[in-house]
Fold this protein.
Amino acid sequence: MNTILRARLLAGVAATGLVLTGCASGTDSSAGSATPGSSSSSAAPGERNEADVTFVQGMIPHHRQAVEMTELAAARSENPEVVDLAARIGGGQQPEIVQMIGMLEEWGAEVPAADGAMEGMQGMDYGGMSGMMTPEQMRGLAQASGSAFDRMFLLMMTEHHRGAIEMAQIELREGADPEALALAQEIIDTQQAEIAEMETLLEQV
C-alpha cells in the first residue's frame, strides 16, 4: 500500500509541474506579442498630417514676401546694418522656400503659385498667416528710401517674423512630420534672434 501511495503522489507532482510549465510558457508568449503592437502605434506620431501640409503651403508665400522685402533694402536703404540684416534674412529664407517646395512635391501636395500668390492670401483667416503685408504696405515700402525706408522695413519685418513664429508654433503643436517640425523650430529660433536684432536697430534709426 505504501508503494502504491508513493507512486500516486509522484505522478501528481509531475502533472502539477507540467501544468505550471504550460502556464509559464503561455505568459511568456503573451508578453512577447505585446511589444510589436506598441511599437507600431508609437510610429503613428511621425506620420505626415494635414497640419504639416497647411504649415508648408502657408509658409512658402510668407517667405516669398519676406524675400521680396529684403530685396528692396539693397536699393532703398542707406544703412549698412539694415542692408546686411536684410541680406541675411533673404539668404536664409530662400533655401527654405526651395526645401518646402520639395517637401510638397514629395507629398504630392499643391505648391502655391509664385505669381499673385501673396495677393490671393490676403485676408485669410488661418492664424499662421498673420504678419503678411498688404499690397498697399508693400507699395509704400517700395517707394520709401533712406531712414524712412529703414524704419518701415524694420517695423514691417518684425511684424512679419512674429507671424511666421505663430505659424511655426501651430506646427509644433499640431504637426507630425519630422522634417516639417524641425523646420518650424528652426524658423522660431532664427526669427526670434532676428527680431531682437531689429528691435536694437529700431532704436538707432
Notes: Residues 1-43, 116-128 have pLDDT under 50 and may be disordered. The chain has one domain: 48-202.
